[in-house]
Amino acid sequence: MENLKRFTILYIKPYWGRMLMVIMMATITSSYTFLLGFISKITVDEVLQLKPAGEVVSEAHMQSLIQEERRPKRDPQATIPGLGKEGGIMLPKTRTEKLEWLGWIFILYLVVRSFFATLNWFYTYSIAYVGQRIVFRIRLALHEKVQQLQMTFFDRQQTGRIMARIVDDVGLLQSEITTTFIETLRHVARILMGTAILFTIDVELALMAFVALPAYVVTYKVFQRPIANVFMRFREDYAEVSALLEERSKGIRLILSYARERREFRDFFKRLIGLYRLGVKQSVLSSGLGSVCSVVGGVAMGLIFYFGALQVRGGMMTVGELVYFSMSMGNLFSPLVALANVNATLQQMLVVISRVFEVLDEEVIIRDREDAQTLDKVRGRVAFRNVSFRYTETGDYVLRDLKFVVRPGTTVAVVGPSGSGKSTLVSLLMRLYEPTEGKIILDDYDIQDVKISSLRQHLSMVPQEPVLFSGTIADNILYGQAGTSPEQVMAAAKAAELHDFIMTLPEKYEAPVEERGTNLSGGQKQRLAFAMAVVTDPSILILDDTTSALDAKTEAKIQETLDHLMEGRTTFVITHRISTAMRADRILVLDNGRMAGWGFHDDLLEECEVYRLLYEQQQKQKEDAADEFIEGIMTAVEEVEKGKKELQSRSR
Amino acid sequence: MADESNTDKLRKLAHFVTPFKSRLILLFCLTATMTALSMLPPLVMKFIIDDVITMGNWHLLEVLLFISICLPITSAAMRVWVSFTNAYVGWGITTSMRRFTYEYMLKLPMRFYDEMGTGKIMSRIMSDIASVRSMVTSRMLGILVDFVSFWVALALCMGLNWKMGCLLLLLMPLYFFNYYGWRTPMRESYSLWRRKMDQVSVGLQERLAGVQLVKSYGRERREHRAFAEDTHQSLDAAMQTATNRAGYMAGSWGVSGLRNTVIFCLGCYYVIEGEMTYGAVMAFFSYSSRMFQPILNLTQIAMHLQSVMVSVDRVLEILDFPIEIADKEDAVALPPIKGHIKFEDVHFEYKEDEPVLKGINLEVQPGQMVALVGHTGCGKTTLTSLLMRFYDVKEGRITIDGHDLRDVKLRTLRTQIGQVLQDSVMFDGTIRENLLYGRADATEAELIEAARIAEIHEFIMRTSEGYDSMLGKDGIKLSVGEKQRLAIARAVLTNPAVLILDEATSSLDSLSEALIQKAMTRVLKGRTSFAIAHRLSTIVNADIIVVMDHGEIVEQGTHSELLQIPEGRYRQLYEQQAAGSIEEAVEAMAS
């Protein structure tokens, strides 16, 4: 409820004028059917002057005679049931008078109809206007918030779920919920009005009608739970069948290679049968509800007509009033059903609203301090001062007590087994996460005192798997720095040794990059990522295991590019290959989040256990390979020697 | 296939409906009766007002009460019956179609899965089949209801007052004018809105997936602006749609308002003139509104039919896909494989004129290990897929122990060949279920033995529930290395005579790499095996190393033989990979 209040203040209040109008229109339009009923009543009683045949004239054939005779001025019947209601004496009208009245009724009818058609148009439009705008504002607010949030949020939430919140949930708020909300008001108005009208027409009949209403609601309640249950189970089963199908068609090779087709098929069939049963059950139940409701409504209507007719016969009611009564009552049932549904919709709305606020209330941990500084230039000195980090407050430490200083322009290799915290370390440097303890100092500033945008401007990271956006190659290169001139883009591409490739494309720099870069090879994507990183001319470059996914040939090529790019920049190279690490000025060894070593290759080999293990493991593989290779060369050399000797002996 | 008419296509699916023919006829009869019954209440009301009240036939009142109580009960009972029959037939058709399609799909060759992709297969089996079924049960039934409603209502109206009935028919075009007038703008603005929403979704998806990049470059503000722009456009489109819809609805309110006014007043005029009774006017009033909705529904049939035909086409895409790989009629069971495998001048292409394998000749003796080496896309994986007969060769032949693969029963071939895929698939379920996938009757001891061989037993025992731990969505997440070792265990358990190993390319840390190496050497012993290796260190011990390039075997021999070929391809590859280590090794030797 707290959320509902907040929601109303935040998103409905700005449109309160429109909203009020919509509500008013909703109330007015709900009176429409009653108004029509009233016109019918007037027509029947005042214009047509239909009257019940009294006991006196119960002979059937008299009636037609009377009707015939109604056309002349004098109506013999007129005097008999003259007391329509409490003394109101109804004078019989002449044909001309009747036609004149009918003319007025025609105009009245036309006016009412066109008035309500216009009102309805306005109502439909306004409700869309308000609903769409509310949704628009919520989407913007959500997206803005999501953009501000720190990485921990994205680690917790999957992309799909965030998407669903911004697009689908909020859409639901507009399409169903706003409408239901307003419609509910309309229904309430309609019920109140209807009740009042029924009671003013005839108290006894009204009481009788209200006996039927609870039966209506009870039926609804009785069916509601089983229907909801079946519906839910059906949805679950359906999702399961879909999931199964998805999994199996992805793993088709496995099914085929174990020749499991038959059993897979039987499995699927069993689930289909389950779905079939639930499907039938579901439709029988919901048609059952509809049927019982229509029985209640139909029987009630029949009874009302029966007793109403008796009332009319006794002169307690006019024919018009009976018509009016029945028309008004028919309009009472449908809003009742809708009202019984309101609770479910309201719950749904509350869920959506609370989800929206869940995101909006997420604390933005990483943000600029008020006195945050802008860095114009960065030399590239990086110092970690007793930095510890864990993702959640209760979780294990991922990094613990890191202490080191990197001099400007040097290269640091970060090595360690997978899961030792290498990637986390650079994420901290980018301030994608905030250290739990300790400080990270860039030049002379704590990075928490620097504006985030200004910090990240001086840092560039090339991720393990390059992320590309749909757009042209040029768009992607200048992603980090809008307003880059084409020359700079080209220079960056040249530096990343991508220029030559780009020039072979028909559209050159305007060549499209498909979603996730599916039309580029791994090496090309990697180079594009390099170009993206260099175009901003960062002082600090971070390479996150950039080359491990490439084959040896490509890696060798890219290495040259990299050496060139790293010149004059402080560089962090994350790698699990010792051979790559050896090229760095310093090596940082991480093990289980702790600094296991810091220094040069040779020293580490002696001092650092973890490093030595890593080295030996890789060395062994390489030595095996190398031995084989040398052996191969030796044999080759021998062969050559042999050949030489043979030649010599022949020449002799 | 392109020239096939819609009727032909529908005929293909008709046999799913045939078993339900009698039920379907019953359903149609019931529905028609129910629709006709629903026309009665206004008549009852007419009798009450005219015959009972105005004419004073009070003795009829009880009869009418009885009728008006029985009527809703009868029609309610019928309604339940109809909806049961409808669900029975509808779900019956859906289920049998899904069942058949899935069964058929499992017989299709790999080419089908390559071309179709998971998403498309899913939507065909789930939503398209549902849509085809809806044509039979809801659309056709809807047409029937509309048809009956229209004619019964028209007949009743004409019976009550033919002059007013004719007037009603004259008013009908107004509905069409309104409908056709608004149809195009409504459709256009709606599809514009859909497009805009898609744009919003796609953009959002991309930004969320690349959130780290967005943040690293400090692009949050600009990304938000782009999103706001997109969303604003979708808002405009939504409002355009709403305006059009409101216009259409106002139009139809206007038309029905006019209709009601004219009928009511004209009816009353006839009452005054004595040509009609008031009860008849009320009944006429009810029927006239029943006549118009069916007409509007009919206008949409063409559209529905179109969308159903699209679904029919899509379902047929599966059902018309040729079963290229199936047992021949005289296929024999492949006797236990010894392992003598021969590729004779094998040619293969996935797409016309884009050959992937060009004349492969290779002979493998029982128990030999074959290593396939070459750059990505040179045809290594294809070669092993052909051995599993996921595809058939285009030219040439492959024999195992002298049997052409195409002459033996698929089942007997595939169950004897084990395969460890590059990206190992594990299904949702427990570890045990996954390991037992190929052989459900293995004993616990065999299971553990296989896991031990694959070096995964220890890992499994470390998980909370051991072999009963769940994998997948709700279960434990596996690393690539763990998955691959599980896959090895799964393959080992079936004790295949031939084993195909596709080494994972993605970077593993040294420890899990070492474990996999260890497992592989053990598993390969005594089996004819094909290994696709990305690290040459894995394969130095292979009996035959096959170097492939662009679908051809360029070199073939043992490790030391191949190294002796000057300028040889294998030697180049080897030098590249070893480059780093050579220096070290030489240095080590020197010192």
Q: How are the strands of the biggest sheet of chain A laid out side by side?
A: 8-11-12-5-13-14
Ends of chain A: how far apart?
Answer: 108 Å
CATH class of the domain at 411-433 and 445-612 in chain A: Alpha Beta
Overall 3D geometry of chain A?
A: elongated
CATH topology of the domain at 411-433 and 445-612 in chain A: Rossmann fold
Task: Offer a quick outline of the entry.
Chain A is built from 21 helices and 14 strands. Chain A has 652 residues and is an alpha/beta fold.
Task: Write structural notes for this entry.
Chain A is 65% helix and 10% strand. Chain A is of the alpha/beta class and 652 residues long. In chain A, the strands form four sheets. In chain A, strands 8-11-12-5-13-14 form a six-stranded mixed β-sheet, sandwiched between helices. Chain A has a four-stranded antiparallel β-sheet with strand order 4-3-6-7, covered by helices on one side. The model of chain A is unreliable at 55-89 (pLDDT under 50). In chain B, helix 1 packs across helix 10, helix 6 (118-160) runs antiparallel to helix 10 (278-319) and helix 16 (480-493) runs parallel beside helix 17 (510-524). The N and C termini of chain B lie far apart (74 Å). In chain B, strand 1 and strand 2 (354-364) form a beta hairpin. Chain B has three domains: 1-160 and 300-324, ABC transporter type 1, transmembrane domain (ABC transporter transmembrane region fold, Up-down Bundle); 162-275; 341-590, 3-Layer(aba) Sandwich (Rossmann fold), CATH 3.40.50.300. Chain B is built from 19 helices and twelve strands. Chain B has 591 residues and is an alpha/beta fold. Chains A and B meet through helix 3, helix 4, helix 5, helix 7 and helix 8 of A and helix 3, helix 4, helix 6, helix 7 and helix 8 of B.
